[in-house]
Amino acid sequence: QVHLVESGGAVVPAGGSLRLSCAASGRPFATYAMGWFRQAPGKEREFVAAIAWNGGTTNYADSVRGRCTISRDNDKALAYLQMNSLVPEDTAVYYCAAASSWVAPTRNFEYNFWGQGTQVTVSS
User: Fold this and answer.
1) What pLDDT is recorded for position 61?
2) Longest CA pairwise span in the chain (Å)
3) Which of 12, 29, 64, 119 could disulfide-pair with 77, CB 3.0 to 4.6 Å?
4) Whether 82 contacts 60, CB under 8 Å
């Protein structure tokens, strides 16, 4: 079992930056991949970014590539999502998730554990 808690969501102006954090507990952190997903009102949950257990592989959605960076600190059991040049379309609830995988999965069903989410609102 893995317990995930996101933090760092806020209201930011367009063009601003934000760093989300995900604290994990339970199984050893370095045994699973981490991902970030988001869900905007009225839309399905979508993939944002993922990172392999050792940070060696990362994947990004086209909509955030070049603006977001996913990272992890296995010693602290933390995952991060640094978001820059935010636009109103980035407004959503952001979820972190853990996957029993050696790679960096991009699909919802590949993830076994989910956090409760943190709200990010980008004002225009």
Assistant:
1) 98
2) 41
3) 29
4) no
